[in-house]
Amino acid sequence: MYKDRINYKLLNVLILCAIIYLFIMTFNYWAGIFQKVFSLVLPFLIAFIIAYALYPIVRKIESKGVRKNLAITIVVLAIIGIFGGLIGLTIPLIYEQLISLSQSIRTLISDTSVIFDINIADYQSTINNYLNELIGSIGTYISNGLFDFISQSLNFLTKVMIIGIVSIYFLADMENIRKDAKAFLKKHNKKAYRLIRDIDNELGHYLEGLTIFMVIQFFEYSFLFWIVGHPNWILLGLLASFTTVIPYFGGWITNIIAVILASVVSPQLFVATLVICFIFPNIDGYVISPRVYGKTNNVKPLWSIFAVTVMGSLLGLFGILFALPTYLVINCIYKFFKEDIKGKIEAIN
After folding, report:
1. 86 found inside a domain
2. Which of 321, 319, 320, 324 is nearest to 297 (CA)?
3. Is residue 115 part of a domain?
4. Number of structural domains in the chain
5. What are the backbone dihedrals phi and psi of residue 111, each rounded to the nearest 5 degrees, phi first?
6. What is the pLDDT of residues 111-121, one digit of tens each?
7. Are 230 and 269 in contact (CB under 8 A)?
8. What backbone torsions phi and psi does residue 115 show, to the nearest 5 degrees?
9. 91 inside domain
10. Structural domain containing residue 100
């Protein structure tokens, strides 16, 4: 009798409103706990993502007859060597080229005043002072940044070491992790297993396409910059390859560095570099990338740009790096539950 008088839908709504209210009132307390837990879990999450991304490469090397431990060692040493070499070569090189650029500008101003018999001594002094201040501020920023990094980044370096070590353990045990997860999901929830399987396939295709595109970018830009006589062609090829992981915006990093380095060599190289930087990114975006990713993932440009913007604003560089995989996961989940959602909407109507 009393059961018929109780509106359970209204009761559930009231309970939900009470939970939301309590959550809002105690948000500062829960936010602090969540932030602490998240900071503890984040290194392990990043380590797992790195291991998950590198696992197909290890499997590929293993398929050539190489033992798993040796394959993991080869991959880890290659990653450390490439990234360490890029950082160690790029920063000093850019700083040296900026100094050469300022000297070239001074020479250009001096030659112009002589050729056209223009008295620009005051302007030249002002420009020289500005350039000296600019170079000095850049040098101070780099030196202070390096000092601060060394003196204040013990916690950061510790986390990097933890991520590196844990990712190696994850990578060594990834095959067992995948098997155990597959067996568990198959036994307890077959629908969840199918969803995870679809997500795994989608991310696997994305990583496959990304690897292919990175290799293409390396050979493409190394060859192009070598053809025009750029002295740093191999470095720029590596930068073009690895900045590919930053969708849509990573190429600008390589282009800016290439133009700065070319501007202090010769006007001809500067113009040739500009041509490469304006023409070939469009070829990559409209011809090569669709052909590579079109065979792996159906990545819609508008949604991927939106994902990069949102994730970048929320999580910074890490958000930008994981924007496309996050978009692919969300899109895969939506497609998986699309029919269920439509069915419930039609049932309500």
Report:
1. yes
2. 324
3. yes
4. 1
5. -65, -40
6. 656 565 555 55
7. yes
8. -65, -45
9. yes
10. 51-173
For 119-189, where are the alpha helices, taking DSSP H only?
121-152, 154-172, 174-188
Determine the pLDDT at residue 1: 45
Residue with tokens 């090829």: 237
Distance, CA of 254 to chain centre: 14
For the record, the structure tokens of 276 come out as 């490469």
For residue 43, tell me if it sits in a domain: no
The torsion defined by the Cα of 244, 250, 255 and 260, in degrees rounded to 10, comes to -120
Q: How far is it, in rounded angstroms, from Cα 171 to Cα 165?
A: 10
Half-sphere exposure (CA, 13 Å, Cβ side) for 229? 9
Does the predicted TM-score (pTM) go above 0.70?
no
DSSP letter string over 83-132?
Answer: HHHHHHHHHHHHHHHHHHHHHHHHHHHHHHHHHTT---HHHHHHHHHHHH
The token pair at 6 is: 């109780």
Which tens digit of pLDDT belongs to each residue from 126-152? 555 665 665 556 555 555 554 554 555
